[in-house]
Write a structure and sequence with these properties.
The protein has 513 residues and is of the alpha+beta class. It folds into 2 domains: 214 residues, Four Helix Bundle (Hemerythrin (Met), subunit A), CATH 1.20.120.1730; 160 residues, Histidine kinase-like ATPase, C-terminal domain (Heat Shock Protein 90), CATH 3.30.565. The chain contains 12 helices and 7 strands. Strand 6 and strand 7 form a beta hairpin. Helix 2 packs parallel to helix 4, helix 4 runs antiparallel to helix 5 and helix 9 crosses helix 11. It is elongated and about 165 Å long.
Amino acid sequence: MLTARRSDEGARRWPLSRIFTLVAAVAAVLAITTIVLGGLALARLTAARAALLDVAGPAVIAAQQLSRAVVDQETGVRGFGLTGRPEFMDPYTSGVADERTQVAALRAYAATGGFDHVGRDIDAVEQAATRWRDAYANPTFAGVRPDAVEGRTLFDGVRAATGTLTADIDVQRLADRDRLNAAAAYVTVTGIAIAVVMIAFLAAAAVGLRRAVLRPVSDLAAQVRDVVSGGVQRPVHGAGPREIFELGEDVDAMRLHILHDLDEAQEVNRRLDRQTRDLERSNRDLEQFAYVASHDLQEPLRKVSSFCQLLQRRYGGQLDERADQYIEFAVDGASRMQRLINDLLAFSRVGRTTEAFTPVDLGEVAAAAAAQLDQVRVDTGGTVTVGVLPTVTGDATLLRQLLVNLLGNGLKFHRDGVAPEVTVSARTVDEGWEIAVADNGIGIEPEYADKVFVIFQRLHGRDLYPGTGIGLSLAKKIVEFHGGAIGLDTTGGPGTVVRFTLPTTPLPAPEEK
C-alpha cells in the first residue's frame, strides 16, 4: 500500500525531461530573439559604415579632385593667354579629363547613396564649366582675346558651383557619420541588453534548477550517506522531479532489502571469520610440522648418510660392480635428501628467528655472500662484481642467504665455454630500493618467469644442474618477508636479470617466531 501511494504521488510530479524541455524552449526563444536583434543591429551598423566609408568618404575626395581639375584648367588657360606657348595646354587638357572622370565617379556615388541634391550640384558644376570653356577658354586657345572680366566672372561661377557641391557632400558625410555613431551605439545598447537578459535567464535557470533538481538530489544523497554510515533504520524519502522521487523509492526499497539480509550477511561473516582463523591455525600447524619434520629428520638422515659413506669407503671395490653402484646410489640419494631437508628447514625458518629489523649494509652482505661462493666461482672461472649498494633495514642473515642463492644461480647456470659474470647493482624506485642481480648465463624464457619462483619447480634436470628447486622460492619468501617484491626482467638480452625491491620503511618483523 505504501509503494502504491508513493507511485501515485510520483506520477503527479514533473519529470526531468519536461523541466529540461521547458528550460531549453525558453533558451531557444531567447537565442532566436538575440540572433534577430543582433543581426538587425549589425546590419544597421554595416549599412551605416558602408555609406560613410564606401560612398560619402570617396565622394568628398572626388569633389576635391574635381575642384583641383577645374583649377588646373584655369591655370592652363591663363598661362597660354600670357605666353602663347602650347605646353600650357597640357594642364588644361588633363584637367578636362580629370573633370570628366570625377564627374562620372560623383554621379555613381550620388546614385548609390540616393543623393538627388548632389546630382543637381554636379549638373550645375558641368553647366558652369561648359559656359566658361565656351566663352573664355576655347576662344583663348583659338587666338581670340576674350573679355578677361567676363572670363573671371564665369570662372567664379564654376568655383561657386564646385564649392556648393563640396559643401553638400561634406554635409552628407557628416550625416552618415552621425548615423554610423548611432548604429554603433545601438549595437552597444543591444549587446548590453542581450547580455543582461542572458545573465538574468542563466541566473534564473540556475536558481530554478538548483531548487528543482540539485537540492532534491543533495537531500537524497545526504539520506543515502546516512544509510551508508549506519542509519539503516531511518527511511529514505525522495523529493523534486519524478525521477528523483522514484529513485528515493528504489533506495528505500534497497534499504529494506539490506535490513532483511543483514542478519544473514553477519552470520556469513562470522562463519568466514571462523574459517579464516581455522585456516591461519592450519597454516601455522603446517609450517610448524615442516619445521619439526625437517629438523627431526636431520639426525637419522645423517646416520644413514654416514653409514652409506662408511660402506662405500670400506667395501668399495670388494663387492661386485652392481653392489658398488647400489652403494653409490644410496650415498647420492642420502646426500640429496639431506640438501633438500636443509633447504626446507631454511625455507620454514624464514621469519622464525627474526626478532627485529636492523640497519644492514647490503654492500657488506653482498661481499660476504660472494666470499661464501669463492669455491664455486673458482670452479666455474667466473667473476662477481658488486656495485654501490644502499643500507636498508632488515634481517642481515636472511638478506645474505637471499644474495647467496641469487649469486649462486648466476654462477651455476652458465653457458658452456663462457665464464660466468655476475653483477649486483641498485637504484632508487618509488617503492624504495631496487636491487638487480644480472648474469650472462643460459637465461630463462619469459613464459617461465613466474613458474621459477614456485617451490620445487625446476627447468633443467639434476644431471645438468644440481639443486633442489627451492632456491628462488626461498628468495621470494625472504623478499616478501621484508615487504618487497621479486621478479625476472624479461626485456631481452643474454643471461638472466633478477630484480627485487626493498622498501625504504619495511614492514615490522613479526613477533611470532
